[in-house]
Amino acid sequence: MPKPHELVAERTRRLVEEHPPGETPVRDFLAARFDAGLAWVRFPEGLGGLGLPHGLQPVSDAIVEAAGGPDPFALNPMGYGMAGPTLVAHGSPELRRRLLRPLYVCDDIWCQLFSEPGAGSDLAGLATRATRGADGAWTVDGRKVWTSKAHEARWALLLARTDPDVPKHAGLTYFVLDMRDPGVEVRPLRQMTGDADFNEVRLDGARIPDDHRLGPAGAGWRVAMTTLANERSAIGGGSTVRGAGPIAPALELWRDRPDLRTPVRRDRLVSLFARADALRLTGIRYAAAPSDYPNSPEGTLGKLVDAELNQDVLEFCVEMLGAEATAFPSYEPGGDPAADAARRADVRWRFLRSRANTIEGGTAEVLRNVLGERALGLPGDVRVDKDRPWRDVPRG
Amino acid sequence: MSDDIDGGPFVLDGERRALRALVRDHAAREWDEAALRAAIGPGARLDRDRWRRLGSELGVLGPDVPATWGGGGGGLPDTVLAAEELGAALAPVPYAGTVLAAWTLLASGDEEALAEHLPALCAGTSVYAVACTDARGAWMPPRPSVRAEGGAVTGTAAHVVGAPDADHLIVLAATGDGPSLFVADVGAPGLAVTPITSLDLTRPQATVVFDGTPARPVGTPGRAVCALSAAADRAVVAVAAEALGASARLLADTVRYAGTRMQFGRAIGSHQAVKHRCADVLTAVEQTRSVVYHAAWTADFGGDDPALTASLARTAAAATLTAAADAAVQIHGGMGFTWEHTAHLYFKRAHFDAVLWGGLASHRERIAALVLDVLEPAPA
Ligand SMILES: Cc1cc2nc3c(=O)[nH]c(=O)nc-3n(C[C@H](O)[C@H](O)[C@H](O)COP(=O)(O)OP(=O)(O)OC[C@H]3O[C@@H](n4cnc5c(N)ncnc54)[C@H](O)[C@@H]3O)c2cc1C
């Protein structure tokens, strides 16, 4: 019997040999990877996994990354990073069997209908209502906002209020919503980059069968915690390859533009590089061995560091470019996918986009609260709404 | 679950966990605050009994030293675990300097010198320090300010860490063949060791003046820089590990204080300005742990460039300890500025470490040279 990490490495090497990423269509590569149990090695066999420890995932990822294989997180972030793990933890066997494979091969894009105009950081304060009809099915009314990929998504993770008369965390229920339902209306929201990657989503009598509920009614917060924990570790995962990930644009610029090199910039880039490598190694360490801090929300730490590093790296790039950075590629994304991909690869575009990193998936302030309270055990913030029925809590 | 993955820098096997627990218990027992205070008072000297126990009972003084010369085996990963625990307690012992001395001797390849010195070094019965600074304290100067001639050395080495307690000095001296290594015995004629008040009281230092001091050559003449550099690349990882341990301890102490000190009717740690600062130290400590363990592991088992990983570990750990110590002093408020509180001892360690053995600038420079200066634009 080969050791588990050898098994994963060997299987992954075989995968990239038999399906060379350069020549294989993305979908086919992902399908082969799913069927080989290398999508999420910790998932059960038959569901994209091998039932092995999570710590072995980087073994496979590094080989795929080095071979130039597709990154499922980039293609279907909410699907790969959040929906997959949530389905495996809380979905019925039937839902998992039906939804996981198309999710991984990106036939189905997923989105996350959590945030609302009145509930961002305070997610448990959300107001979207789900009520149960006589047939057991649910009807949903409300308004969600900043929903990434809603315009492309087939399925949504939805958190809704099912009981307004209990304190906010107790009255929530978690669903998988079909975005093709006629009660779902998606309207693009423009971002500071000029793109419209996220949306406003109106739910007006949208219908959800009861077998699309994850976890018991009223227990949605617990399910949401699975999603949020996975969201943070997926976002903060970084790269397993030195020089790739958040630091890559700065190293590329340094390489390609010797004319812009100065000793001061060289010193700054050394600091950024050192931070990037520490983040990279921490991702690998956390995957291999749980942190020494009990209850440490490890993904939270990586997400926070990744977000701030990304911003600092791109700020460095823009400063290095100087006057050249004052011209923006274009605020009007065009129809041509190749031109648009080039626009989004530009460090100036990435610089603007990086401002979202400390907001999306939990703000830097909220993550520091989480680390302070859950990893370090410091006393909680003042909470004025904890024990009151949700309907009596001021909002705005 | 993680035990399913064998090896790698981040999964400690049972033996390493046991070693760490052993050193942790030792440090807690021997270096509680009262012992630490006593050891850094005016005129205080290294506690030889405690030091010997580190050698004879714990076997952590001679990493990589073969058993024939008294070593207990164990490479850099083991050293790092020991250093982390000693650093956490701020144990006022010359641990880093001793592993530097051991590795310098080993790197010299001089079997006679190894047989003569290593058994006592490993057992903790003799204390070694490395004198390879010039008269102004510059580390490994290209032109040493100490010269060797006819079996004797003459000149001055300043800021020699560990010298006040040393029995033997490993000396870097200029010769006709280039910089070479020698061993001089403290107490030999023409050797003056003048202790100076050290910023970091737990790392005593001295000015050493050699005046025709008899000294025995070690290793191949002219090869000193090579041996010293190889040893230093490993020893700086041990220094980084000490800083890691100190940072983690400071964070724990600061968090405990922030959870109990009440102001405005709440624990200060419930205020975000305080809580967030603690969270930032936590992220720094966690990142540093990854870099230090990785450096230790790859130095022994390969898989990465040991020069780069050593410099990364050294810079990360020093920055983290500085941040942890700054936060500790600040969050303890007025109490944090008192001599009675231990925060200043860690603060001083942090700023001492930042210049120890060539300082951080040299390591940042090396990272730049290894990572940035090698990047060539693609040909047009
Ligand atoms: C690009 C992008 C994509 C997104 N995609 C999605 C998506 O797909 N699905 C989805 O559901 N949501 C999505 N979001 C929404 C995101 O999760 C929220 O924006 C985020 O949680 C913050 O909520 P908010 O915008 O309401 O800010 P607020 O909660 O109003 O916060 C405003 C400011 O107050 C601070 N603050 C709030 N509470 C505290 C506190 N307790 N302590 C200290 N400071 C505090 C915040 O840190 C922030 O600086 C996306 C956001 C962005 C920017």
UniProtKB/TrEMBL annotation, chain A:
Lineage: Bacteria, Bacillati, Actinomycetota, Actinomycetes, Streptosporangiales
Keywords: FAD, Flavoprotein, Oxidoreductase
Cofactor(s) essential for the protein: FAD
Domain Acyl-CoA dehydrogenase/oxidase C-terminal, residue spans: 218-375
Classification via InterPro entries: Acyl-CoA_Oxase/DH_mid-dom, Acyl-CoA_Oxase/DH_mid-dom_sf, AcylCo_DH-like_C, AcylCo_DH/oxidase_C, AcylCoA_DH/ox_N_sf, AcylCoA_DH/oxidase_NM_dom_sf, Mycobact_Acyl-CoA_DH
Protein name (database record): Alkylation response protein AidB-like acyl-CoA dehydrogenase
Family, similarity comment: Belongs to the acyl-CoA dehydrogenase family.
Organism encoding this protein: Actinomadura algeriensis
Coiled coil: none
Residue span, Acyl-CoA oxidase/dehydrogenase middle domain: 111-203
Domain of life, source organism: Bacteria
From TrEMBL, chain B:
Record keywords, A-Z: FAD, Flavoprotein, Oxidoreductase
SUPFAM superfamilies: Acyl-CoA dehydrogenase C-terminal domain-like (SSF47203), Acyl-CoA dehydrogenase NM domain-like (SSF56645)
Top-rank taxon: Bacteria
Residue stretches making up the Acyl-CoA dehydrogenase/oxidase C-terminal domain: 237-369
Domain Acyl-CoA dehydrogenase/oxidase N-terminal: 15-124
Pfam families named among the record's database cross-references: Acyl-CoA_dh_1, Acyl-CoA_dh_N
Co-factor(s): FAD
Keyword Flavoprotein recorded: yes
Stored InterPro entries: Acyl-CoA_Oxase/DH_mid-dom_sf (IPR046373), AcylCo_DH-like_C (IPR036250), AcylCo_DH/oxidase_C (IPR009075), AcylCoA_DH/ox_N (IPR013786), AcylCoA_DH/ox_N_sf (IPR037069), AcylCoA_DH/oxidase_NM_dom_sf (IPR009100)
Record-stated family: Belongs to the acyl-CoA dehydrogenase family.
Name of protein: Alkylation response protein AidB-like acyl-CoA dehydrogenase
Species, as recorded: Actinomadura algeriensis
